[in-house]
Every structure is written in structure tokens, then in C-alpha cells.
Design goal:
single chain; 427 residues; mainly alpha; three-stranded antiparallel beta sheet; 13 helices; 3 strands; globular; disordered N terminus
Length: 427
């Protein structure tokens, strides 16, 4: 592609004279287009999944989904152009956790029960009621908090502070510190995860897994996660082993066909849909097994994709997520600052692990868990929040090395905190 010379803009490098449209495909564009492709596929499959044997419900979920898709696109664009450094503030990170706690407590007190699960808050909005899951907000509130918490600068203190103050400053921002890192992180994780575990064990475990993984990336000592084995085992015993309906999911995962007419119905119908699709599928809208799959627009939409688009359609979805994660990892490696590095890492963890868990449940590789397929499943709050998070990933990519092919892009704001500087007392 031929580059077109443009007048030199003061303050910009000479290479900036090359027009953006003449540059090769860059990271933000690839991520944006991949998310857009997944959302387009989601609209098609939600419409197809709603074409069931019940005419009265043919268009209900599709109509609501179409309303949220433009909002999600707007959130994706907003996140892309939003300067992510503005989120690197103490009050934003702490406020996000406090709002999450309030919403999760509200769910326990006045939440709406849907499909035997009390996970939704509802509010009237004009001619319709909007229901959203605070646990979707909690995923990224935790990511934002730990991205800020572990990117605080180790600025050199004034000489008058002395050695004691210098040591205290270093310890309070060191991710390897047990007192100043592990204990506060466990306090935040414990409160959020316990509130979610009360009604949704799978999502609570998912949030905890993302938080621990992000803390390890931030610099936790290798033995910190070993301290969580005991509390995690106790949580599994209390929330799974002593709860018959959750224990049944483990039994179904071990042998779904033994419970075909009972708790194994979901998984068995999903597996039959996967098998009936063959290599190329039955064709869009021509699926039969989808009519017997509960939650075929949300948790089991991947089964509908494989039935109507076949193995090739399933590999297409997996390939799109593979491209998204691959480019996201490149963004993480080229992040211009530590906050961007941790924020992009957290968003990548949420998207990739959620996709793996959903596809694992649909294929029977993991125990049944109500978790959606990012950007594809029917949804409102989850789709919008996930799209904004993907936009923030693009925002980090725009300012990273290679974001526009010209090195770090000029930022509309200066970094809120300086890069870490290790203080060494004068000899």
C-alpha cells in the first residue's frame, strides 16, 4: 500500500505524516473488528435460536437483544476513544468496589429470582423493565481495583523522610509483601466473592480465579495462592457438597446420560445438537435439537451454532476468540505503563476464561454453569459491560507500541502517577 505524505504536524514525529488509512492493520483495528464479528454472529444466532416451536415467544429475546446491540457498539467505541489513564485514580477504584458491594447486597435483599436463581436487579425504563446482574459489573470492578492497587508508584521520598519512611513506602507498594499486598487483596476478594457465592457459586469462583491470576501477574509470591487452598476447599464443601442441586451438576458432568430425564437434560440435549450438526451444519434456522435445549440463547448458544453451522462454525467461533486473545496478549506486552499492562491483562483474562468456561460446559468438558459466551449470547448488562471493557483494551492498544504503527501515541492526558522508581539511600 502506498503511503501518502501529509504536512508535518508540530509535536508529532515525521512518520506521523503517513495517513492512518494508509497504514497496515493495527492492534486496535483488529480487536475492534474481531469483537464486531462476534457480535454480528451473536445477532444471527440469537435470532435463529428464538425460532422455536412456540410462535408466541419467537421474537421476544431477539427484539430485546437488538435493542442492546447498538448500546454495546456505542460502549465499544466509547471505550476505544476513552483515555484509560483517567481510570487510574484511587477514588475511582475504591468507588467501583463500594458500588459493587452495594449492588450485590441489594440483590440478596430485593433481587429478582429468575430460573430459581436470585441474581438480577430490575428497574423500569420507559416502556420496558431492565434487568441486570451486578456480578457482571463485579468482574471488571475487581480488575480495575487491582490494576490501580498494583500500579501505585514507588516514588522516591524526600530526604527528610529518612530510611524508615522509605522502607514503609516501598513495602506498601510491593506486591510481594504479605501484609501490604496479600492481606488487602484477600479482604477485597473475600467480600466480593462471598456475596456472589451466596447465589451464584460459578460466577463467584470465576471472579476469584481472575483476581488471583491478575495478582500473580502483578507480582505475588508463588506461595501466596497456596494459602487459598484451604479456604477454597471449605467453600466448595459448603457451597457444593452440602447443596444437592449443585452436587447434582458434578454427578451430571461425570455421567450426563445417567441423568438424561433429570438434571442431565441440558447437557445431553447440547451434546446431541453438537453431533447432529456434522461438519457443515443443518443451515441457519434449520436446527431441530435447539428446540429442546433450555437457555439456547444464552448459556447454550454455542450448541445452536454447532448444530446449524457445524464443526466449521464452532471452529470459526473458537478461531475468532483465539485471534482476539492473541492480539490482546500483544497489547499486554506492549502496554505503555504498568496500569495499562494490568488493566489489559485483566480484561484479557475475563474474556478468555469466560469463553473457555462456556464452551467447556456446552461440550461437557466442565460441570454445568450458567455463564454466557462473550459478545454472542443474549444479554443486556453483560454485553454492554464486556463491550466497554474490550474498548478499553483497544484504548491501551492505541497508546502501546505498534498501536498505530508509530510507537506510543500522544496521550490527551499525562500519566497520573510517575513510573516506579526504587529508592536507594545514599551511601
Amino acid at each position: 500500500m502506498t503511503a501518502t505524505a501529509q504536512p508535518l504536524v508540530p509535536g508529532r514525529p515525521a512518520a506521523a505524516r503517513v495517513r492512518l488509512m494508509d497504514r497496515p492493520m493495527n492492534e486496535p483495528m483488529i480487536i475492534f473488528l474481531t469483537v464486531l464479528a462476534l457480535m454480528t454472529l451473536g445477532v444471527m444466532m440469537v435470532y435463529s435460536a428464538t425460532r422455536t416451536a412456540h410462535p408466541s415467544g419467537d421474537s421476544y429475546y431477539f427484539t430485546r437483544h437488538v435493542i442492546f446491540v447498538p448500546v454495546a457498539l456505542g460502549a465499544l467505541v466509547l471505550g476505544t476513544i476513552f483515555p484509560y489513564q483517567w481510570l487510574n485514580r484511587r477514588w475511582i477504584a475504591i468507588l467501583g468496589i463500594l458500588v459493587t458491594v452495594v449492588l450485590l447486597v441489594a440483590v440478596l435483599l430485593v433481587g429478582e429470582t429468575i430460573n430459581h436463581a436470585k441474581r438480577w436487579l430490575s428497574m423500569p425504563l420507559g416502556f420496558m423493565r431492565i434487568s441486570f446482574q451486578p456480578s457482571e459489573f463485579a468482574k471488571f470492578a475487581v480488575v480495575l481495583f487491582f490494576a490501580w492497587f498494583y500500579s501505585r508508584a514507588k516514588a522516591e521520598p524526600p530526604p527528610a523522610d529518612g530510611r524508615a519512611a522509605a522502607w514503609l513506602r516501598r513495602a506498601s507498594t510491593d506486591p510481594r509483601s504479605f501484609v501490604w499486598s496479600f492481606v488487602p487483596a484477600m479482604a477485597v476478594m473475600g467480600v466480593i466473592c462471598l456475596l456472589i457465592l451466596k447465589e451464584d457459586f460459578g460466577t463467584g469462583a470465576f471472579v476469584g480465579l481472575v483476581a488471583v491470576a491478575l495478582c500473580m501477574i502483578a507480582g505475588w509470591r508463588w506461595w501466596f495462592p497456596l494459602l487459598l487452598v484451604g479456604p477454597a476447599a471449605a467453600a466448595v464443601y459448603l457451597a457444593v457438597w452440602l447443596q444437592p442441586w449443585r452436587l447434582n451438576r458434578v454427578k451430571v458432568w461425570w455421567d450426563p446420560w445417567k441423568y438424561y430425564d433429570g438434571p442431565g437434560w441440558h447437557v445431553c440435549q447440547s451434546l446431541m445438537a453438537l453431533g447432529s450438526g456434522g461438519l457443515t451444519g443443518l443451515g441457519l434456522g434449520a436446527g431441530i435439537q435447539k428446540m429442546y435445549i433450555p437457555e439456547n440463547t444464552t448459556d447454550f448458544v454455542f450448541a445452536v451454532i454447532c448444530e446449524e453451522m457445524g464443526l466449521l462454525g464452532g471452529l470459526l467461533v473458537i478461531g475468532l476468540f483465539g485471534v482476539l486473545v492473541w492480539r490482546a496478549v500483544r497489547v499486554v506486552r506492549g502496554a505503555p505503563d504498568r496500569f495499562g499492562f494490568l488493566l489489559a491483562s485483566g480484561v484479557t483474562l475475563v474474556i478468555s476464561l469466560q469463553a473457555i468456561m462456556n464452551i467447556g460446559v456446552v461440550t461437557g468438558a466442565l460441570p454445568a454453569k450458567g455463564i454466557s459466551l462473550p459478545f454472542i449470547s443474549y444479554g443486556g448488562s453483560g454485553l454492554v459491560i464486556m463491550s466497554f471493557a474490550a474498548g478499553l483494551l483497544c484504548s491501551v492498544a492505541r497508546q502501546s507500541k505498534g498501536g498505530a504503527g508509530l510507537g506510543p501515541a500522544p496521550s490527551p492526558v499525562q500519566p497520573l502517577r510517575p513510573e516506579p522508581v526504587v529508592y536507594r539511600p545514599a551511601r
